[in-house]
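Form 7-S
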Amino acid sequence: MENELKEQTVTKDTELKSWLVEYVGEQLAPENEEITVDMIVEVVAKEFPEFLMVVAEENYFRGYKQALDDAEHGMQVIHEQELGQVASRSS
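Output:
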């Protein structure tokens, strides 16, 4: 499963993006002079790994919490359905 955003060319529409695109361009010197999100991740991972680690950890924990919330909601739905079936049998 590929993430299409990784290959997206980054536009310089903010000051930070402009600086980052220029910096990554200097580091990697791509032939077509286009900088992708994947290239930025590569350079940031090499030069500032603790930043990416914090982002990855936050993403992991948010995903884990969402999975637990979804499972809890699913259990509530099943419980409500079971109660409804019991009530309809009693009637």
